[in-house]
Structure formats: C-alpha cells, structure tokens
Design brief:
CATH class of one domain: Alpha Beta
CATH topology of one domain: Alpha-Beta Plaits
CATH architecture of one domain: 2-Layer Sandwich
Number of strands: 12
Structural class: alpha/beta
Order of helices and strands: EHEEHEEHHHHHEHEEEHEHEHEH
Largest sheet: 6 strands, parallel
Strand content: 15-25%
Shape: elongated
Radius of gyration: 21 Å
Helix content: 25-40%
Number of helices: 12
Strand order of the largest sheet: 7-6-5-10-11-12
Oligomer: single chain
C-alpha cells in the first residue's frame, strides 16, 4: 500500500526549500531511499509517496516534532488506488463556517456567555449533544426571527470551503452538509456553496400578531443528534453504491467522532481534543483546501 506524507500550511506560504530538504532527509534516513516530493501548491502543500513497509514509527515521531516546531501540518495518509473520494460529508459550525451559529444567535440577544459555555462542553464531549442543543435553544425563546436573518448576513465562510465543494462537485462527487445546527442556515449555505444535500435541525417558529414571527425555544422532532451524522454517511454510501474508502468526512467536535471513525479519510479541522484522537488527519495550519490536497489534488485541478 502506498502511503503519502502531506505537509501543508496555507496561512503563511512558508514551506521553503529548507523545509522540503529537511523532510526529504528524514524520509531518506528512515527508508534508505531517495523519495522525491510532489508540489500540490507552491509554498503551501507538498507530498511524498511512501511504501508502508519501508519506514518505521520513528519517522512519524520525527514528523510530529517537525509539526510542533515549525507549525506545518504533517499527515500520513493511507490510500487506496483511487485517491479522489466520491462522497464528502461536512459539519457546518466551526468547519464550513467560522462561527458556532447558536453562539452567534445568543450574542445578538446578550446571552452569549451562557450559550457558548454549553457549546464548549458539548463539543468536548462533556455534555450529551441533544441535551446541550435543547438547553441552548430554550435560551432563544421569545426572540424575533430577525436574528436568523442577521446571522445569515454576518457569517464568515472558512477559507477553502467554496473550492472544496466546487472541485468535488465538478469531479462527480456527492457533497453533503450535515449539522446539528439549523436548516435556516444550512439551506442558505446549500445555495451559496452548492452542496448537493443538506441535513440539520429545524427551529420551531410561530407567527405572532402583526405577521411577526417568533422563536419558541424548541426544536422540531426528530432531532438530529450526534448519531445522525453516521446514519447519513451510511445512507449515502448505500444510496450511491459506494464503500467507506470512497468517503471523506470533516468536522471539529465530539459529535463528529462516529462519522469520522467510519470515513475513508476522517479529518479533524482545527478540532477539539476528543475528535483529534479519532481522526486520521488533522489540520491546524491549513484551510479546507487541505481536504483536496489530502486526495492528491494540486492547485491546477482546483476549481475556484
């Protein structure tokens, strides 16, 4: 089996010849072979193809130290013959968008501290996801749906999200956004980024006097919880007659663990500790373009 060593940093364009020579020398010492690298993105992403039986655990330790010392992501990626995946399932909050959407809604009504505390506990796996969701939504009770529209106008799309979805769509992949957040935002992102499918929870809303709409503080059943992401992965694998090696999944929190565990490539994107333990690869200095580089795409293959 071919395994790839991917190094990447899209924030600083910092991968110079010094770093490339250093990595190449580490590989040569480990394998007793000269292994040439392939440039995926100038000064941002490079990969080396390795034969799994020709290097040992020392190389992984060396590259872990390299990552810490130089803030360049280093990931060993096991692949099948077909590297480019046929199914992408992505989390929304703090993955496709920079924000935690419930925290941002709470910020608008002056309840950010109490909501963000619950969010953090849930994302680190210390509070059960469904309970955390119900408790946070209850804090929004009685507020106008105007805050939902304000949020849509103010969210920030993470770097590389547009290119990730478009490139995979153009290569015939199925792109799915699955979130424990809410449909008002996932449907907006579906149109904006061209995801093929989206799944999320629905906020219960009622119409008040003068045709005003108000959030009730409840979530409509059935509630999409942490199990749902794996269930949707299973659904799309079956629907499109795929196997799990055909899939790449990305998230940042504890509620993504089951999905990440079953993906062909499970990606922790600036993830919490609980998810990092489960993920195959980790990006802490790389944009969402890293998911394309991990599949072997180079810049000249990426649609903008």
């Amino acid at each position: 089996m071919i395994e790839y060593l991917l190094i990447s940093n899209t924030k600083e364009n910092k991968i110079s010849n010094f770093y490339l020579d250093l990595v190449s020398s580490h590989i040569e010492k480990s394998t007793n072979e000269k292994v040439s690298f392939r440039e995926l993105s100038f000064r941002k992403a490079y990969e080396w193809g390795l034969v799994s039986t020709k290097y040992d655990s020392k190389l992984k330790k060396i590259m872990s130290d390299f990552q810490l010392n130089y803030e360049i992501d280093c990931n060993f990626i096991k692949t099948t013959e077909k590297r480019k995946k046929k199914l992408l399932i992505a989390d929304m909050d703090s993955t496709i968008i920079k924000e935690e959407s419930l925290d941002e809604l709470a910020r608008q009504i002056g309840k950010e501290k109490e909501v963000s505390f619950i969010t953090n506990e849930a994302m680190n796996g210390r509070v059960e996801f469904k309970k955390a969701l119900i408790d946070r939504v209850a804090i929004l009770k009685g507020n106008s749906t105007d805050i939902l529209e304000t949020l849509k106008k103010n969210i920030n799309i993470n770097d590389g999200a547009k290119e990730l979805v478009k490139t995979m769509n153009m290569n015939g992949s199925i792109t799915v956004l699955v979130s424990g957040g809410f449909t008002f935002l996932t449907e907006y992102l579906k149109e904006l980024l061209d995801f093929k499918y989206t799944h999320a929870n629905t906020l219960q809303i009622i119409q008040k006097e003068f045709q005003k709409f108000e959030i009730t503080g409840k979530v409509e059943e059935p509630i999409l919880d942490k199990k749902a992401k794996l269930e949707y992965l299973n659904t799309y694998v079956k629907k499109y007659n795929l196997n799990y090696n055909d899939t790449i999944c990305v998230g940042d929190g504890a509620n993504d663990i089951e999905m990440i565990n079953h993906a062909g490539i499970g990606v922790s994107y600036y993830g919490k500790t609980a998810l990092n333990k489960a993920a195959d690869i980790h990006f802490n200095n790389t944009s969402l373009l890293g998911l394309l580089y991990a599949q072997g795409y180079s810049d000249n293959e990426i649609f903008k």
